[in-house]
Amino acid sequence: DMPTPPHIIERLCQAAQDPANHRYPEAASLPELRQAIAGWYKKRFDVSLDADLEVLPLIGAKEGIAHIALCFIDPEDIALVPDPAYPVYFISTMLAGGKPYYMPLTKKNKFLPDLDIIPEDIAKKAKFLWINYPNNPTSAVADLDFFNKVVKFAWQHNLAICHDAPYTEVAFDDYRPVSFMQADGAKEIGVEFHSLSKSYNMTGWRIGMVVGNAEIVGALNTVKSNIDSGIPQAIQYAAIEALTGSQDCIQQHNAIYQRR
């Protein structure tokens, strides 16, 4: 419920005045935005990304999450989905003709899915495993040990990992959440969705990204190119400012959230 930081709004206003930004945007978004995303991941998580192959801006992370099932889910395929979870994970699976298999998140297991109890026949049929940390709605967090275990599980069962990570910048008391992309082999087996909505109070701007495995990122770009016409370029320039400009706003927002 807080406004977008002024320096981001100012950059939007500047970009909106440029007639070049009144046209259809580039299909995979501005190279400068992809480079800004890759640079942010390197600075924040020490993760190296190929801006041309492993980074794709989205019209909000939700859009990418909803469409990725169309890339890989065939009728009767299974997606492993946490329960409770963001509804788009399982609804997008069903819209693509697949079936969600629900993994309970329990207090006993620190609200992490217990991969060891997933039936072998289910795991073999699964195309995706969805995870989301820091978690909505439980607020649980995951460490690299868990993410490394997820990567191992994915290799064992020939499935892809989709990590939804919009809350990595919302944390208190010097705790800094890790990225799934920091796990050994994560880029070879999965992708991570991120969003500027929570970090920079840009929920209404609809700007996010997916990073990671080049094949998965490329497939999503192919689907998107037949569904949408990209992110308005003025918003892309504002996103570049958000990612490369002052990050003081994140700490300021978190201080307010913590007081509340």
TrEMBL record:
Query: Cross-referenced CDD domains, in alphabetical order?
Result: AAT_like (cd00609)
Keyword Transferase set for record:
yes
Report the Gene3D superfamilies cross-referenced here.
Aspartate Aminotransferase, domain 1, Type I PLP-dependent aspartate aminotransferase-like (Major domain)
Query: Where in this chain does the record put each Aminotransferase class I/classII large domain?
Result: 4-255
- Cofactors: pyridoxal 5'-phosphate
**PANTHER family according to UniProt:** AMINO ACID AMINOTRANSFERASE, L-GLUTAMINE--4-(METHYLSULFANYL)-2-OXOBUTANOATE AMINOTRANSFERASE
- Please name the source species: marine sediment metagenome
**Pfam families according to UniProt:** Aminotran_1_2 (PF00155)
Question: What are the UniProt keywords, alphabetically?
Answer: Aminotransferase, Transferase
Q: What does the record list as coiled-coil region(s)?
A: none
GO MF terms here are: pyridoxal phosphate binding; transaminase activity
What protein does this entry describe? Aminotransferase class I/classII large domain-containing protein
